[in-house]
Write a structure and sequence with these properties.
The structure is a single chain. With about 280 residues, this protein is mainly α. The protein contains 12 helices and 2 strands, in the order αααααααββααααα. A hairpin with a 2-residue loop joins β1 and β2.
Length: about 280
Amino acid sequence: MTENDRAILKVSELSSRAIPWSRTLDVLIIVVAAFLVWSVSHISFLLLGGDWDFFIDWKDRQYWILIIPITTIIMAASFQAIFWNLFRLPVGATASLLLLLLGTWIVRYHSWQGLAYFPLSLVVPGTCLMGALVLDAILVLSRSWLVTGMFGAVLYGLLFYPANWIYMAGYFQPVMNMGDMTSVADLIGYTFPRAGTPEYIRIIERGTLRTFGDTPTWVSAFFSAFVCIFLYYMFWGLGVLACNARFFPVGERFKLIYGNKGKAAGKAVGAAAAQPGAAS
């Protein structure tokens, strides 16, 4: 038994037999917490971000750049506040968006490609992981949620487009289609029709060179960064509110069952031994 284990036993008032069970419980808590973070982040993203991130030709130069950062910073700020206030760990934003990205890849691979036979290159999800790393880095350096919201949230919104440009650049190349100039992404949409295609995406991106990205792209990025500031502060506050713990009184018999060796448990043991017939 190490000194750390002895210190933990002294503080928690547990017996030495509870150490393996305590470590097993820690592992289970981490697994369940990771599943909850992923599920909450994924459901929130599907409800708010939705179809804007499904197909490569739906990722337009205006609203995709605007909507995805402001819908993902909600969970990033909330879980960052929870991890920071409860554990002083600056990993909340990165953990939530990393789990969201992994879960999205699993769904796109098994459901979209495995069941619906969509090419995987057509359903590549966007990532906000670079912005999440910046959020956590600024928080651990400044140790201030105000500074993180002012600078980190701005960088979070601005870094989304450059982080996804690596795989998006090839789909913005101009091609000729039946005498009209279009992008490779739009050409995929023309030749690969799908049921339920949102017509508003086709309406706002109507045109030729408009689809290749220009000044409106960065206008959307800066507006997204501006909105991210307010959303970060709002959902940081909700995360802090979720950290308020409530304690309920626990009976002495319950403490005794789980190895509590404090004074109250000792009194309970003495009282049980003093009862008539206890020796038999």
